[in-house]
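Sample entry (243 residues):
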Amino acid sequence: MLVAAAACPCPPLLVPEVAAGAAPELDTARAACTDALGVLAAARPDLLVVVGPDAGTCDYPAGTPGSFRGFGVDLDVRLGDGGGDRDGAGDGVAGRELPYGLAVGAWLLGRTGWAGAPVEGRGVVESLAPDACLAEGRRLAGRADRVALLVMGDGSACRTLKAPGYLDERAAPFDAEIARALGTADTAALRALDAGLARELKVSGRAPWQVLAGAAEGAAGLSGALLHEDAPYGVGYMVATWS
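Predicted structure, serialized as tokens:
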């Protein structure tokens, strides 16, 4: 059963070594992510699953490596410490590396010294249909008696003229609804997100957030809190907790 969740943005720029001289611009977002992970730790889960966008839909066991070399930085990360893997795959899967969103999640966990529960990863293809996302969430929530999710994903990339997807007037209201839904643990609103519009607005978090909505089905008493919302570089970044 889901007992807690944290939603965090997943741009590699969140990692100071990647952002370099621009790192201070995301200090507030990093601080909010640290606070969000504190909420997960306080829930004392039996299992933490990091969910994020991926080119496919697949599992990443504890110990799976990741890297930011593709962004010009000689920095490696590893999902969890590799010691809490339930399938004995503490060294990850041979030849498989974390996608960038899960790598950012692994970096956040390492930065805060996560030791609260075994960690696993679940990559979710960005085109996954809403019903399939909900089913994924229900499956993950049933993995242990007390499950926490760290959900990685960004809002629209169309908030300004210089944004990766240029300016789209639909982007700001779309992000505002996501921020409201995450901040109030509104699973119905997350289930109702328009996958087609999300794709047009280059929203990487749509599928992971709908996985979260599925995981929360049957979890009584969850309340939400929005810790951070901003759109630097024209991309929507939200940090929220459910507990």
